[in-house]
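debug: dumping io for the single-chain case to check the tokenizer round-trip. Nothing else runs in this session.
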Amino acid sequence: MTRVVILLVCMGGVIYIWLGEEMKRGVQPAANGTATYMIVLGAKVKPGGVPSLSLKNRLEESIEYLNTYPHVKVIVSGGQGSDEDRTEASVMLDYLVKRGIPAERILVEDQSTSTYENLLFSRDVLPEGTKQITIVSNDFHLQRAKYLAKSLGFEVDVVAAKTPKSVETKLRIRERAALLKTYILGY
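debug: decoded output
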């Protein structure tokens, strides 16, 4: 019995470390303006339409990237959770416009409730035949987002936003479980 427990603990440790290394690989390949369309994945919105720190970091990276590559258009992707008073996409749209990104460069996908749906529903907003996209999300989340995007036929590069220190441990542990589920189930 003790050997079985030790074996399971060791296997769990190896899987935990492997998933952490997989998450680190998510930040490559770094976007360089090749893709004409960028998708910013939604995250929590606080009452009053205030972006969470995770979402704010994604938006700040998006602004920098859009200013560097003025030919790129952006899809803001995220629906409304049961504890949110606005859609994530509407909050992102307002944030970008208030910081100088022209509304004509911003497309809105506001029905999704998961990373998979962010990408699936954004595909419907893209011009037909678009394969190359840039994904913007927090660094811990990009490996799973890339995996899901590739399963939908996209060629992907990424812009990595920093993960807020205040929630980093919790999010990295949760993401390991989500990444393992995605690798096993495919979504």
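debug: round-trip ok. Residues 2-25 form the longest helix (24 residues).
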